[in-house]
Specification:
Helices cover about 15% and strands about 35% of the residues. With about 450 residues, the chain is mostly beta strands.
């Protein structure tokens, strides 16, 4: 319900914004002590605040992004401070498909169990998650609060991986990766973004302001920084994972587990996989307690690759008797009816040719005409008889028979499963071709 105001004289200010500067009425200013102040102010029932963003000024991609902030008191409803980002392509890829990342978001526990002064909520929003997003809650150690001291809220951001932390970047409390999204969703966080800071009033999470809502509600910012990797971290050694041999469609014996070697101090590594087996897929599960698709250099953790194949099912097909008795279905044998009638047919055909001709005896024109007539009659009769025998399947069956044939699963053969590793210093487009390390696991499908 707030009106966002820039500094006095800002061309885009609504008419209700202050026209002259005062620390009492201005919604954003520098306090002279190295801090940016953003404050929500209730002026006779009308709330104003400030939102600052780098859109059109500065884009960011990867690195460690953090801000040092002291928040207003969010014990009671009304205020909704945030430090967040949006995809820089939002004008061509509208929200939420452009991606939104809330590094810090705080609101009253009275509204949807908000974290309040005792914590922080971090959420990512994608095309499929929309306004709900997925994320995690951070709770401050006993005695610490968001409104009485500065705390750093940030992420270590690399290709396919965002690690969120409060105060200590070596101890993330939440890690999100493409594998954490639902099937069919898109990971939009390998592209540029711009940063935002604001103190909203009211709204879905802000709740309803009251006399208990701080006025002004002050958020002070010490700094916003981006750190880029100074060096490339040592890539993990993936070794030689065990091969996989599985019957198509089986749900056992279809895994390979191995423990990559990570150099000390290289942080987290994200793993993904692919397979060239037809009608098959693969998935990664790790033993990391924070996220099941990464491993940490701080402890010995394993990676398990699971391959899902499609069973080769059988199907019944109706086979007419005349085809069932065919040579190709009986391995070179003719059915008894065909063996009985075929000699008779050929004998009749021979007689139709030889007998009417009467050998080489010279005949008159009427006799030759009669012989030709008999020849044609014999030929037509023989062909008709063959057709009747074939269509009746030799006359020995009047029912339809079924056979089963192998069909449509993962074709038995030799394939591979490729595993890809992405380190914290990876600043690529996140494609498998740009992984820091990879290994192929032999896959045999029976």
């Amino acid at each position: 319900i707030e009106t966002y105001c820039g500094p006095p004289g800002y061309a885009s200010n609504p008419s209700s914004c202050p026209g002259t500067f005062s620390t009492v009425t201005s919604n954003a200013y520098l306090d002279g002590g190295g801090h940016l102040v953003i404050q929500a102010i209730n002026n006779i029932g009308a709330w104003s605040s400030a939102r600052m963003k780098t859109q059109g000024l500065e884009n960011f991609q990867y690195g460690r992004i953090e801000a040092s902030i002291q928040l207003p008191n969010t014990t009671n409803q009304g205020l909704w401070p945030a430090f967040w980002s949006l995809g820089s392509d939002i004008n061509t890829t509208p929200w939420p498909a452009c991606g939104e990342t809330d590094f810090m978001e705080d609101w009253s526990p009275q509204v949807f169990n908000g974290p309040g002064p005792g914590g922080n909520k971090t959420t990512i929003h994608t095309a499929a998650t929309g306004g709900n997003g997925i994320g995690g809650l951070f709770t401050f150690p006993s005695g610490q609060r968001a409104d009485t001291a500065f705390h750093t809220y940030g992420t270590i951001w690399s290709a396919n991986m965002m690690q969120f932390y409060v105060d200590d970047p070596t101890k993330p409390f939440l890690i999100e990766t493409p594998a954490d999204l639902a099937a069919g969703d898109t990971w939009p966080f390998n592209a540029n973004l711009f940063l935002l800071m604001n103190v909203a009033v009211g709204g879905t999470l802000g709740g309803t302001p009251s006399a208990s809502t701080p006025n002004p509600g002050v958020m002070m910012v010490d700094y916003v920084r981006q750190y880029m990797p100074s060096t490339t971290v040592t890539v993990p050694v993936l070794g030689t994972p065990p091969s996989i041999t599985v019957k198509a469609g089986a749900t056992s014996g279809n895994v390979s587990t191995f423990s990559p070697t990570l150099a000390t101090g290289t942080g987290y590594v994200y793993f993904s996989c692919s397979t060239n087996a037809p009608k098959a897929s693969c998935a990664i599960i790790t033993t990391d307690p924070l996220n099941p698709h990464v491993i940490s250099a701080s402890s010995l953790e394993s990676v398990t690759v699971t391959v899902t194949t499609t069973a080769n099912t059988s199907e019944a097909k109706a086979i007419p008797p005349r085809l069932l008795n065919h040579r190709s279905l009986n391995h070179g044998s003719l059915n008894s009816g065909m063996r009985t009638w075929m000699p008779i047919v050929f004998a009749g055909f021979f007689l139709s040719i030889v007998v009417p001709s009467g050998g080489r005896v010279r005949r008159s024109r009427p006799q030759r005409r009669a012989s030709l007539y008999l020849y044609l009659c014999g030929l037509v009769g023989s062909l008709a008889l063959i057709a009747i025998i074939t269509s009746c399947g030799g006359g020995n069956s009047s029912t339809t028979t079924t056979i089963t044939q192998g069909s449509n699963g993962t074709t038995p053969g030799s394939y591979s499963v490729s595993v890809y590793a992405f380190t914290e210093s990876n600043v690529s487009d996140g494609s498998n071709a740009k992984a820091d390390a990879n290994v192929a696991i032999p896959l045999t499908v029976n």
